[in-house]
Specification:
53 residues, 1 helix, single chain, mainly alpha
């Protein structure tokens, strides 16, 4: 019984670590997409301004 408790504790510990890593990766992807969209919008605005002149 003691081994089962130790295994369960270790399993839940690694599961929690995995969930935290997944959340960090998802947050990084979302932030990266927002930064990229902002950069693309800025570049598109600069291109339209230079072609209008």
């Amino acid at each position: 019984m003691n081994n089962l408790i130790l295994f369960t504790n270790a399993f839940l510990s690694y599961l929690l670590l995995f969930v935290i890593c997944v959340c960090v990766v998802i947050a990084a992807v979302i932030i990266g997409m927002k930064i990229r969209k902002a950069k693309d919008a800025k570049d598109a605005k600069e291109v339209t301004q230079t072609t209008d002149q």
